[in-house]
Every structure is written in structure tokens, then in C-alpha cells.
Fold:
Amino acid sequence: MQKIHKILIGIAFSPNLKPNLFEAIRIANMFNAELIGVHVGEKTAQKEADLNQVIAEADTLNTPLKTIWQQGKPVAVILNTAAVESVDLLILGALQKENLLKYYVGSIARKITRKVGCSILLLIKPSIERQACKHIVVNGLKDKNTAETIRTSVLFCSHLLCKKMTIVEEISQSELQVQVNDDKSLRRATIAKERLKNREDQRINTLLKGIPCDDIAIKTQSIFGRRGYSIGHYAKVKRADLLVMNAPLKLGLLDRIFPHDIEYILSELPTDVLIVK
Amino acid sequence: MQKKNSFKTFLGEIPQNLFSGFVVSLIALPLGLGLALASGAPPISGIIAAIVGGIVVSLLGGSKVTITGPGNGLVVVILSAITILGEGNAYQGYLFTLAAIVISGMLLILLGFLRMGALGDFFPSSAIQGMLAAIGIGIFAKQIHVMFGNLNAKGSIIELLIQIPEGIIHFLSSSGKSSFYAGLIGIISLLIMIFYSKIRNRYFQLIPAPMWIVVLSVGMYYYFELFTTAAYPIDQDLLIDLPQDVFASFAFPDFSKIYELEFVSAVISITLIASIESLLSIKAVDKLDPLKRRSNINKDIRALGLATVISGFLGGLNVVTVIARSSVNVNNKGSNRSANFFHALFLVAFILLFATELRKIPLAALAAILVFTGYKLAAPENIKKVFKIGSEQLLIFLATLLVTISTSLISGILVGIMITFVIHIIITKNGLLFFKNILKPNVLMFTEEGKYYVSVKNFSSFLNYTKLKSKLDQIPETTEAIVDFSLCDFVDHSVMENMNNYSETFERKGGHFEVIGLDDSKPGSAHPFALRKILPKQTSPKEGILTKRQKSIQKISEEMHYSYDAFSDLKIEELPKFGYFKTRKIDKISNVLTKNSCTIFDVQFSEGEMIAKQVIKATMFHIKTQNNLPKFTLDKEGVFEYLLHFAGYKDIEIHEHPDFNKRFYLSGKKEEKIRAFFTDELILFLESNKQYHIEATNTGLLILSKERLASVNEIKALAYFGAGMQKIIEKC
Structure:
């Protein structure tokens, strides 16, 4: 995804409509993209009036909002619209657990996330006023999609005027191949870790070579922990504003029962998450 | 080269290890005999366990200065196994139990290979304490009757305890009989055990107390034999029974009950206790090791398992790591595993050379040693200690203890786990917290500027402690580590106790280990190991119990001559005026250190509102200046996080300081004034120190490092930096 031309947002007439829409409009303007809003349900005069009122309060869009009203099953409608309109980015709002400062992706949004063909931006804290995006955390997995993910993150960085980006390399315990038992093996493990860290840094640096990103402060950070889960924890600890992840290669039934990678993140969003496809 | 040197040191250290092994064998001999007798097994089985353990574990083990042999904890388990499996026939029960011992040894080897040797890490520590106390009571209840010369006391632990007064009366009324003299020796032996440590005579202390008991009772026998005409007043059946030819007739395990439920439960109990006792001992001995080495626990467990298998086949008891003998080894300058080996060799020599003399030891004398150890395990001080940590811990402790002595060890520990878990749910009023998060990997570790930073999420208790432990074990103890619990809603006593252990180990090895993020939590009691529940945001305890971090801050505040108030309701009126706080709402300030016009504090503030709200805690330094300052912000070049509120202002270049311009990003409204303010001296100071984020209003200066709470060392550094900065500014 080198350029974002079309952004799709699902419109639900909930209390979050205004912040969601404000955020989407802002993002669309930043990318100079066309915003498409789809509402699954009947088109009534009341709903239209509400929508227009919100839009009137928001920033003016560079290209006018295209609204689609369609009845049917939410998942199917949104997937279909995304495919027909060939959108580049889908924006979804996350839900908040009651009384807890924890966010998760609802069942509908989760289904969409799994099936949709474009990149997805999951927002946990849409707001009416602009909150600057200051720090983006990107996964640096050893995966063929990672280069694309990093390129997209740089694209987001430059459009969202973000100056700081951290590429996180998650190194799993098994890769370390040294078990810490006593002083000797601890020393070996520490050296092995350092070596792995250097290797990963080098890999990321090669990936970064072809990408123009001079005005962004890019840092690499190795963390040792379970794949997919630790990066969310890291984003939370570092209070990142956006976490960018690779799309999972394939998700079967087993993956849902034994969640890994992205599923962890979906069940407990640490911050806004962008899944690059 | 390295190898030759270490071999040389090994050779050089042989004499001291030889001596240490000798002293240890002096204790191991009576203890081995006594523990075996108390277990209801032939006395020689304890010695076999010590000999096999000493040889096998010293060759294959992973620890350095530990001594292995039969353990206290297993007495109760093996006794009940022999009674239950034997169904009245004690010797047959012993053979069945040997089979159970062999299989539990195999299990231990397996656990060692699976790296799960540290079974104790999966259990709440109060429950383990309760279980150990129950074992102590078990040993005490049985042996006190033997000590009074009565071998026939029977019944459950509780019945035996009730019979004690009756036993004393019986003892007093039986004067003149053989059992009375045995009881007399028992009581004298107990007095030796109790008062041994109080007699500070170098020559007396040369021989350990249990050996004194042996020496005195054997000496008494010879006194009767050689110097008086009266017969030895103690009957043969009240003396130790050793086989005529000690190393010719080994008992062989009987595996015919292997599929029965009682057998399986015996195997489980033996394995459980063997693992827990060994682990606790290894951990405790590592703290004593003068060379500060770390034991390879799983390797040690494997070696113990193998030793147990061999010992079982030869008719010996379980082999575990034992704390008392190990600490004697360390005290006598044992420095490597050869001490354990020599202790085994000396035992062989004793048995071969002094078998006749050993047969003269009255059972009551050995029972006295065990009464003393049993009492030590269940001493009232232990209960007091647990109570200090919190009344809920006492509940767990007592429940485990009572269930263990009234039923069995396995049900005891299960009840302990259940009660602990229920108490945790009641305290947090949130069972979901545990059920939903128990399987999640909740620990994140990464290095940052050479420091290890560990963040723990959701909850941290005995249920998921191994996850945290496996990360912490990877940190070299010579470095600095910070463990942050601020994302945790609940931290239990077992974890707090372990954190304290880590902190001690790091301190010993020259590193630094610090726990942060608990200052806002509500502790269960004043004890440093008390469990902690994180309070809802924005309520701060007005007065309360200081966390370890707060205590350390208090300490350094005295060193640095700052005054400290942990629960201050101070308001720094100027604080909201700083650009940094323009978009952030200050909730509260705590842990305030003040000196003159300088203040260091933890501030809790929030960003955003409603669902976008994030609560952040950070440590900052504030100086109220006398001179009028120009408004500016100064940052590391390339860090743009804080600069939003000064958007529109460019990096101000200071002439003739290209290095400064390259490394720092300085911005503000009145460029000229700012340039004048940044004197050469100030720039030199900034260049030569760690880079902080610095902000100035007209009358104050705010310095901060990271948007999180600082560790004590970081606070020190911050205070030092701030003081230096203030000095230079005041001069202007």
C-alpha cells in the first residue's frame, strides 16, 4: 500500500458517531483521500439529518463524503463495499470494557478484520479535537510482509506528521537457544541475546535502506517475549499512539482457540492499531 | 589455561573441603540414623541415602556448596507410606516404600529434564510454610514419645499430641525402669540441642551438637561397661539396631503394589516434598555461598533424582538437599562439591569402623535431635512471622497446617492453594481478572540504556509467577533491573517475597534491583512482603505503609539532605503553567522531596478525556528560581514528543557551540533572551551530563527524564543534575 486514495468508515448512530467521524475526516484530509461512509440499515430522514449535522461541525473534507446506505448483514455489507469500491483503508472503532480502561474489538469488527482485503485502522480513542500522533510502534517480524508494513508506517508517519517511530523486533525464547541455568549459561545467554539483537537490527536497517525517512527519528528495539503479545504490551508501556502490525498470514479455527499474534492484540487493544494488508 | 587454574584452585581447596566434609559427616551420622528411625525405616537406610547422595550429587549436581542426604520433610510422608502400604507389616511396608522412592526419583529426573524441578514456584508461599510446619508438628508429635523412652505410642498426629501429658506422667512414674533411663538420656540430649548455640566455647563448638549427643551416650555405655559393676540400664530394644554386616545385606524394593492408588499417592507426596525441600534449601544455600555462585537447579534436581533411584534400590531413603547440613558446610569453609563427596566418604568410614559403638546409641537420644528439628519447623515464631505479613496469610497457613496434620499432605497443599486463590478473589473482588488473564503472557522485558526494564500486566501471583521468574532469571545480577507493576491490579505475597529475594541477590552481586509502580497500592499489612492491591485512580492513601521504593527514597533523602513526605498533599501552583502540562491534567503529587527551592516529586496526570483518557505517572524535578528566566524548552535532538505546545518555533542555534546545536533541540519565543541565558558554562554543563527534557517558565524550571516513575538511582541522578543546574542559573 503505497498510497491511500479511498477510506471506508462504517457509520453507526451511536454516541461515538461524532468522534469517529471527526477522526475519519481528519485522517482522510491528511491523506488527501476520498472518504466513503457506509451505514448498514434503513435510510431515514432523521439519520440523514443527524449525519449532516455532524459533518457540518467537522472540518471540511477535501473531497466530499460519499455515503452508502444499504441493508443486510453488517459483515457482508462492509466486506462487499470494501471490495466493490476497492478501498485502501478501513476504519473501525473499538469497544471499551465497562469501567475498565481496556479496549477490545467487537465480534463484528473482528470478523471483518479477518476477512477484509484492505488495511484496517482500529481506533480506540477517536476524539473530536485533534490529538497529535507522536509515536508509532511498528512490528519488525521476520516476515515477507514486514518491508511493506514498514513502508506503510513511514507513509503514515509523514502524513500524520509523526516524528518518532520505533521498530520492534520480537525475539522468542526458543530462538535464543540458550537456557539460563547458572552463571555460565547466563553469560552465554546474554551474549547470544546481544548477537540476536545485532542481527535483527541489521535486518531492519537493510529493510529501511530503500525507504525515504530522513525526517523521522527511527529507533529499533528488541524485546524478548511471546510474539504478538509483547509488542502490544510494549506499545502500552511506551504509550505509543499507533501500533502497526502485519496482517496475519492465515487464521484457522485453531488460531482462534489458541490465540496468537494479532488475536492477542484484538482482544486487548493497547492503542490505535493499523493492520497492513 | 582457565581450566588448569581452576583445577589448581580445586586442589588447593581440598584440605578445607576435607575438613568441612568431616564436620558435616559428624552431624549427618546421627541425623541420618534419626531421620530413618523417625520414618519408621531401618536406621541404616538414612546413612545409605546420605552416602549415595553425597557421591552422586557431588559428581553430577548443579549446585556448589550444598550437602545432600535424607531430609526432615520426608519423615512424615515416608512414615505414612510405610504404615499404609505395609498394612501392619512394617518391614514389608518399607520394601513397598522403597519402590515408591525409586519411582519418585525417576519422576524427579523427568522434572529436571522438563525444567520443572522447581515445583515450589507453583505454590503460594504461605501454603508451603503451613505444610512445613505441619511436617514439623508430625515429627515432634511422634518423636517426643520416643524421647521419653516410649516406643509404643500409636495414633494419628493429633492423638499423639494429646497423649503428650500422659506420656510425661508415665515417664515420671516409671523411675528405675529401662525406659526411664532412656528418657533421661533423651531429655539431656534435648537440653544439649537447645543450649548448644548458647555456649560460646571454641573447643565445645568444634563438635556439632548431634555428635555430642552420640559421643556422650556412647561414652556412657562404655562407662557402665568398664568402670562399674552395674549393668547398662537401657534394654537392647531401646538402642539402635544396625545389621551385623552393614554393607552386605541391602534391602531390595518390592514393586508389586505399583498400580495401587495408595502407592501412587505416596509417590506423588514423596516427589512433591523432595522437590520443595530441595528447592528451598538450594535457594537458601545460594544466599550463603561466599563466592556468590548461582546453582543450576534443574541439573541438581536431576542428580538428586538419580541419587534417589540408586539409594532406593540399595534400601536407602530419598536424597534431598538439606539446609542445616549445608549451612554447617558453608560455615566450615566448604567451597565446592567435593565437601559433599568427602562427607559421604567419612560416613562410610564411620559405619565400617564404629558400627559396634553406634549400636550403643539409645533411640531416645536420636529422638531428641528430631524433637528439636520438628520444633524448629513449627516454632511459634514462624506463625508470628506469617501473621505479620497479613492476617489472610495466617489463615492460609493455618488451614494448610490443620488439613495436612488431620488428613494428608496432598490434600493439605491443595486446600492451601484453593484458600489462597479464594482470598485473592475476595480481596480484589474480581475473579475475572484471574480467570481471563491466567494464560496470557503478562511479562515484557527489554533493555533500555543498559538497564533491564520488566513490565508486568494484569496480575502477578503464585499462579503465573513462573512467567515473571523465567524473565528475571535472564538478567545478570550485576546489572540494573527495574520491575514495574503499575499495569498490575494485584500482586500477591509470594511474588513480593520473591522480589525481595531477587533484590537481595542483586545487591549481593553488585547490581541493583528495584520494584516500582506499587506506591499507590493498598498493602495488606506493614510487612514488606504483604500483598498489594492497586487502588482506584486518584485516591491516595493519606498515610500508609511505605513500599520498598518509598523507603529507599526516604533513605536517600537523608543522604542528600532533602526532606521527604510520601503522602504529601502539596500543590505546586506553578506546575500547570509549564507547557508540558498545558494539555495534561494533574491528578496528584506524591513522594515529595524538598530542599530550599527544589522539589522532586512523583506526579500522576492524565491525558485526554473520557475514553481517550490515559493516566500517566512520572518523576520530575522542579526549581523555583529567583531570577527571571526566558521561557524555553530544551530537548534531545530528534525527540519531538514534548514539543507540540511550542509548535511554530524553530530550533534556536547558539553561536559557537555546534556540538550543542547538534545534540539539543532548543525552542522558545524570545530568541535573544534565550541566547543570552545559555552561557558557556551552562552549555558545558548540559553537554557533559545526561540529556533531560528541560522546560522553563518565567520563575521556574522543570526537569524530567522519562514519562514513567524513576527508580531510586534515577532520582539520585536527577537530584544531582538539578542541583548543578540550579547553581549555574543562580549565578547568572
Summary: Chain A touches chain B at residues 96, 101, 124-127, 131-132, 134-135, 163-164, 173, 179-183, 185-187, 189-190, 193, 217, 221-226, 229-230, 233-234, 236-237, 239, 264 (CB under 8 Å).
